Amino acid sequence: MTGVRRLGPSFENTRSAVLDMIRSSGTVSRIELAEMSGLTATSITRIIKSLIDVGLVVETGYGDSTGGKRPSLLELNLQARYAVGLSLDDARLTYVVTDLGGNVVGQLVTPGIRQALPSEVVARIGEELERVFHELDIPVAAVVGVGVAGAGLDIRGGAERLSLTADEWESFAVQEALEAATGLPTVRDNDAACAALGQFWVGRLAASNDFATLYMSNGFGLGLLTDGRLSRGVSANVGEIGHMVLEIDGPRCWCGSRGCLEMLAAPRAIVAQAMADEGLRAELSLAGGDAHLRHDFQAIARAAARGEGRSLALIERSARYVAVAMLSVVNLLDLDRLYLAGPGFADAGAVYVRHIRDAVRALARTRAVHGVSVELSDPGIDAAAVGAASLALQYVLTPHARSSRPAAVALEA
C-alpha cells in the first residue's frame, strides 16, 4: 500500500485517511499504520484513541512479536453503525442494510418504480424502510443515512433521469423528498458510480487501486474510482459510456446521436432483435414492450447461458460491442482492472467477461506492460444498492475521500 497523500492540517481528514487504511487492511497494528501513512507513532496513537472513543474502531487481539511487546491489532467496529442502500429501478426497488464494513445484514426487494408517480414511490419507500428497521431490530439512531442509486444524468437540480419511460422523475428532487419521508440524511449517485464504490468498499480495496465498473441494467453506465474517489467531471456526469459512438452511421439514439453503444448492445436492442425472429419470440414467450423489457432480456440471457444458439448469437453480438467500448476505456485510462455489475450481467455475464478479456489481451495498447483483470462484481446484481450504502458510509467514515458533487449532504459520525 502506498503512503497517504498530504492532506494539510485537518485532523478530520487525517483521521479519515487512517480509518480508510484500517478498512482496506481488515486487521492492522498501530506500527503498520505509522509505516503506511508516514505519520509519527504519537500521531497514530492520538488518532486511534479518538476512533476508539467514538466506537468506530476496536482492538481485537495481538500480533506476532518482532522482539518486543506484541502489537495490539485494530479493525473496524462493524456493528457500531449501519447504512441503507437503495437502488431505484424500473423493475424493482432493492434495499440493503450494511454494517460499517459494507457487509449486508438485511435485504428487501419490492416492485420497481414502473409508471408510478414519484410522490407515491417515495411514500412507499418511507413505509418499507420502517419495515426493514423493525424486522432487523435496528434503531434508527444507529443508521448513519441512506444512499440512493438511480440511472441517468445529474442535472444539478436534484433530479434524476431514471429511465426512458419514467418522465415524471425528470424534474423530481429525489434526495430532498427521501430525507423528508425517512428523517434520515440522504446522499445519491448514479447506479454505475455506486456499483464502483461498493466494489471499492466491500472488496477492501486500497485507495491506490484505480479501476472501473461497467454497470448494465436497461442501459449502460461506467463508474470510475481513482485514488479512492469517484471521478466526477465538470457536471458530475462521468461515465456515460452508453452514449459512446461505435458506428457513426448506426441507428439513431434517443440522445440525438447515432450508433451509440446503448442502441447497439443494451437489453432493449437485444430484445428488439429477438422480437424480429418469430421462432425465437415464440420459443422464449417474449412479450415485447417496455413493461416486459427486463423479463424478456432475462429469458434471452438465460437461454444464451444454456448455450441455445440463436439467443447466444444475440448476446455474443452485444458482448462484442461492449468489448470494443471497454477496450477504448482501457486504452484511454490505462486501467489494469475492470468489474462488471448490475442485473444485465446476472445470467450471461460470463459471455461479456470472455469477450472483454479477449479484446484487452489481444489489443490493449499497454498489453506488453501490464495485464487487465476483468471480473464479475460481487455482489453483482445488487451492486448498486450495496454501493449506495457504501456511499453513505464514505460520507461518514472517510470525508477526505468525498467527491465534490451538487446536492450531496455530509453526514455526521
UniProtKB/TrEMBL annotation:
Signal peptide: none
InterPro entries: ATPase_NBD (IPR043129), ROK (IPR000600), ROK_cs (IPR049874), Tscrpt_reg_HTH_Crp-type_CS (IPR018335), WH-like_DNA-bd_sf (IPR036388), WH_DNA-bd_sf (IPR036390)
Gene3D superfamilies documented for this protein: 3.30.420.40, Winged helix-like DNA-binding domain superfamily/Winged helix DNA-binding domain (1.10.10.10)
PROSITE patterns cross-referenced by the UniProt entry: HTH_CRP_1, ROK
Pfam families attached to this UniProt entry: HTH_24, ROK
Protein family according to the UniProt entry: Belongs to the ROK (NagC/XylR) family.
PANTHER family referenced in this protein's UniProt entry, alphabetically: BIFUNCTIONAL UDP-N-ACETYLGLUCOSAMINE 2-EPIMERASE_N-ACETYLMANNOSAMINE KINASE, ROK (REPRESSOR, ORF, KINASE) FAMILY
Protein name per UniProt: ROK family transcriptional regulator
Species of the source: Microbacterium helvum
Lineage: Bacteria, Bacillati, Actinomycetota, Actinomycetes, Micrococcales
